[in-house]
Amino acid sequence: MTYRNRRMYLADFGMGFTGLALGSMLAQDGITKSALGNDQIAPIAPKAKSVIWVFLSGGYSHVETFDPKPALNEHAGKTFAQTPFANPVDSPLHKKRFRSVPAEEINVRDVYPTIYPMQIGWKKCGQAGIEVTDWWPHLGQHVDDLCFVRNMWTTDNDHAAENQIHTGRHRLDEPQPSIGAWANYGLGSFNENLPKFVVLGGPTRSDTRQSIDSYYLGPQHAGVPLTLDPKNPLPFGQRFEKQTAQQQAREFELIGKLNGLVGAEYPQDDQLRARIKAYELAFRMQASVPEAIDMASETEPTRKLYGLDQEATKVAGERFLAARRLVERGVRFVQVFPSAYGVWDSHQKLKENHTKLCASVDQPIAGLVADLKQRGLLDSTLVVFCTEFGRTPGLERRSGGVDGRDHHPNGFTIWMAGAGVKRGYVHGQTDELGYHALGDGHYVTDLHATVLHLLGLNSRNLEIPGRKRLDIDHGQVITDILV
């Protein structure tokens, strides 16, 4: 049974790189899959070689992180209707962008009317004078390298939004490949000994597998989760006890020959070709992956930069440092979960929760930005920092709540840094209370379209025969933030 599981894992859990050689050759020639087979859209010159996609699970409060709202303090305790502002619940944007699974008449989320004040102070940071709350003292020192998008919105008001921000689809819709899978599918490889799409710290649990999955693109394009134990970074990737390297090499060689014989008989079998590539890559990864995630060679100043010397910041710091090491070695897309599933979900005790969690991520993410910059990697790497939704401006009163905020998909903030985006810049805004993303706002697939664009990919060219995608799946590039 163990051997069968190992074979299933290697073949089906994201390590089957069908078309790897072709993709690599095309990438070396400056061509990506999105530039092929469509004469109407010209190839795109990539700005970014790699992406580090950081996701904080549970929904951090945008108004207490990167979109401070002093009006919440000024009007604390009042209802929306008692302020001089238009009642956001009456706005047509509320129904236009909101899609609740429960019936509307029993849904109470997003409509708590009593304004809850900010739980932390804020100040303008950097030469750009961008407002950031006091929970981010380290990151606040780097705002002149960051690009904030303050008018994001999504439609799911529950935690299936964790999948939605990665796939673009509401949980009531047909699942779609994740953003990392699309990047994997569209790009060639820089390093044939490592996966193109690596996941650190996730998926956070079984029902968030969609956030790294590839669906109809094929298992070879899904994310490959790695642990940060150099002795066992790959599930099922180690040799059996007492098995020598030579014995394992002969095992892989025999499997390759057997698969090759079948492949010659069925040359059009894509799944078989993916299986062959899976075994080839899996064997090579046993040497390259442990080295890539082994941080013993890092200097003490670098380890301190990421907070590896402190218990509170060590987990996030190790994952961000590993992400830097992976992009250095040619990994295209690294998806990082610096904290556990749902921990940013502050229905109660928001101040206590966010004080602790911001402190666990602030120094490590600031360290990542600083480290990429000092190594010259920020010019070729795009960092995306996001969550699934924001938190309500109103006080959550369910279950007698007195100190928390509920889920809020109507408007929230993400930020990016690095290749191809403006630095020290704020795009978009929410209203005075932080309720609605103003203007057209940006649905989550606008973020996807922007990331793919910076990688040299056009989402509309990444079409699969027999799979018609909706217009919203492709999104619109956020052109205002591009350099």
Describe the 3D structure.
- The strands form three sheets. Strands 1, 4, 5, 6, 7, 8, 11, 12 and 13 form a nine-stranded mixed sheet that branches. The chain has a two-stranded antiparallel sheet with strand order 2-3.
- Mean pLDDT is about 85; it is low at about 1-30 and about 35-45.
- The protein is built from 14 helices and 13 strands.
- The protein is of the alpha/beta class.
- A hairpin with a 4-residue loop joins strand 2 (about 120-125) and strand 3 (about 130-135).
- The protein has one domain: Alkaline Phosphatase, subunit A.
- It is globular and about 75 Å long.
Relevant terms:
about 475 residues, single chain, two-stranded antiparallel sheet, about 35% helix, Alkaline Phosphatase, subunit A, alpha/beta, disordered N terminus, 14 helices, 9-stranded mixed sheet
Tally of structural domains: 1
H/E element sequence: HHEHHEEHEHHEEHHHHEHEEEEEEHH
Helical percentage = 25-40%
CATH architecture: 3-Layer(aba) Sandwich
The CATH homologous superfamily is named Alkaline Phosphatase, subunit A
- Rounded mean pLDDT is 86
Count of DSSP-assigned helices: 14
Distance between the termini: 53 Å
**What is the CATH topology classification name?**
Alkaline Phosphatase, subunit A
Count of distinct strands: 13
The stretches of 5 or more residues where confidence is low (pLDDT under 50) are: 1-31, 35-43
Judged by helices, strands and strand pairing, the structural class is alpha/beta
What is the beta-strand fraction? 5-15%
- Rg measurement, Å: 23 Å
